[in-house]
Specification:
Distance between the termini: 15 Å
Strand content: 25-35%
Strand order of the largest sheet: 3-2-1-4-18-19-20
Largest sheet: 7 strands, mixed
Shape: globular
Helix content: 25-40%
Number of strands: 20
């Protein structure tokens, strides 16, 4: 391709929920809204264009047994790319995936370092497992290793109780979150149950993953503090299977997981109605397949979130929340082109017509 070669995206360009353009040009890998003078070798792509989709809870480099090798991590990233996910917030991984940053053909990743969990209170080989008096030090370590985020495990099954229980005392969580903020990092936490939520929010946390335990009395606190949630409904769909597997040994936990699953849509809709920011995340990696963003958007719509806001939660809105550009003038040309308007029917997200990463059409 010559120096004057450009890509022309024609049709409808969804820069934002109300900002719709007729076309854009890609020059030098970046977005331009004026036809470049002297353009040659023009390639035209037609359809409805969105900023590259965001999976705000994804684990590249993580498998069911723990870290995976670079070849497996590459396949995970390529699967996400092929389905239009071009920006990932990697919400905890024991693998070093920095090499991906040198690959222009792979999605961009915002890392949260490695999970930080309480001793023997999480999936084996996933997390640093520490006690409360070590939490601040490990949060500082992962804040320096990550890209502006730290991931805690806020609750997990307590085998003595036979049910979900909070992992961190309030003061330990408060000190750790303050340290992350001092180092310029935001903090999120895995939370299924209710018990850990008030302490974490009052301690200053920025986001909660899953948030299945969110209750009516806690929703105003989340809304007041601006704490976002990433519901990962495609993951919550596995709760009945998990509950069945633990029925004999942990019947109390199994019943709890079923209740959380049964009210999952009401929980998410209640959060949305109260003005709590809701973003798309799949929890891909570990036991879940990659490339599930379209399915997660459909789940948000099933929960009662309007289509335009569900699309925002994986595009312009999610990018703004993560501090990454969308399709503004001069931004990297990361976009996905569809047959129809996803604001009218989110099912079109499952079938990208073209994926463009760093200004290059992915074949």
């Amino acid at each position: 391709m010559s120096e004057r070669a450009v890509l022309h995206v024609k049709g409808r360009v969804l820069v934002g929920p109300e900002d719709v353009r007729d076309e854009l040009w890609v020059v030098g890998g970046r977005v331009c809204y004026d036809r470049p003078a002297g353009a040659r070798d023009i390639t035209t792509v037609e359809g409805w264009a969105l900023p590259g989709l965001v999976d705000a809870h994804c684990h590249v480099g993580l498998g069911a047994e723990g870290p995976v090798d670079a070849e497996a991590a590459e396949k995970q990233a390529l699967t996400d790319r092929e389905t239009g996910t071009l920006l990932i917030r990697d919400a905890g991984s024991p693998s070093d995936t920095r090499w991906i940053d040198d690959r222009d053909d792979l999605p961009k990743i915002i890392r949260a370092g490695r999970h930080i969990a309480r001793t023997r209170r999480y999936i084996r080989n996933y997390a640093w497992e520490v006690e409360p008096d070590e939490l601040v030090a490990y949060v500082a370590q992962e804040a320096r290793r990550g890209d502006g985020w730290v991931k805690l495990v806020g609750d997990w099954i307590d085998r003595d109780l036979g049910d979900l229980a909070a992992c961190w005392p309030h003061e330990a969580a408060k000190a750790a979150i303050a340290e992350a903020h001092r180092l310029g990092a935001r903090v999120t936490a895995h939370c299924f149950a209710t018990d850990s939520l008030r302490d974490l929010v009052e301690a200053g946390i920025d986001c909660i993953e899953h948030a299945t335990g969110l209750t009516e009395d806690l929703i105003p606190l989340f809304a007041e503090r601006g704490v976002a949630i990433v519901p990962t409904l495609v993951n919550i769909a596995t709760f009945p299977t998990l509950a069945a597997g633990g029925e004999n040994r942990y019947p109390r936990w199994s019943a709890h997981m079923r209740r959380l699953h049964e009210r999952r849509y009401d929980t998410v809709r209640g959060a949305y109605d109260a003005g709590i920011p809701v973003y798309v995340g799949t929890d891909a990696g570990g036991s879940l397949a990659h490339g599930l963003v379209a399915a997660e958007v459909a789940e948000l719509v099933a929960a009662g979130i309007p289509s335009v806001d569900a699309v925002s939660a994986t595009s312009w809105g999610a990018r703004a929340w993560l501090g990454r550009p969308g399709l503004e003038e001069g931004a990297p040309a990361d976009l996905v082109v569809y047959e129809g308007d996803p604001r009218q029917d989110v099912r079109v997200l499952a079938a990208p017509r073209r994926v463009v990463l760093n200004g290059v059409v992915v074949e």
